Amino acid sequence: MIKDVFIEVSKNKRRPFWFGLILIMIVEVFWFYASMIRTQSLSNRTFMLDQNYLLLMLMTVNGFFAPLFISILASRIVAIDFDNDMPSVLRVNNQNHRQLYTAKLCFGSLIVLMYWLIQVMSVKYVSQNMHIVFTGHLFVITMVCLLTGLVGTLAFQMSVSFIVERQVVGILLGLAGSFIAMMTSGMLPQAMMRFIPILYVSLLNPLVLQAKTIVVNPSILINLFIVFFVGLVVVLFTEWYTNKTLEV
């Protein structure tokens, strides 16, 4: 498996789509930072500028950008094989369809992990710059929720990109997810978002705004279970589908 992941690294390391992903990350970090600076400058704000607001904004802004980031990532690392005669690629690399899918999922997960680490560093930097102190376990809970949402979204997008040969479909799903999250500020009814995997980062926000007060989401454990379960089902289904494709 490690060899297969290194093959994916070598196939994708010089491709131009990385510049687009880096640009999305830069815009996302600056958007988050600018939002916090703007809020800090308001003299008539009706809420405290504390860890609750900081973490709420982190998850909200990630809900805007993560769907697009992950959809581009998944579609581009899959497209290289669809565009270059997949059966020939598999023979050259001594792989089957299932190995290829698993390798791409692991490779994508490594990139998502790096994206997540950048989010951790950015929120730490903003908290220190604004003298916001983290207390209790809320910071750790939020970071776990963010990582779970990112991986769950990746599992869905990778499966879409691997099953549907037209890679534009996956990118359009990501665009739609980012657009919906931005237009609704990630505040669609949770019962609805549970059926939309592309919005799982927004769904796993552990904080919600109620009557101008930021409180812990009482449904966060249920949402975590749903995202984990759906992600597992999606991965298992795609593993079965790739085995079936191989048999055919």
From TrEMBL:
Pfam families associated with the record: ABC2_membrane_4 (PF12730)
Ranges annotated as spanning the membrane: 16-34, 54-79, 100-118, 130-156, 168-185, 221-241
Keyword set, alphabetical order: Membrane, Transmembrane, Transmembrane helix
Origin: domain of life: Bacteria
The protein's name in its UniProt record: ABC transporter permease
Source organism of this protein record: Leuconostoc aquikimchii
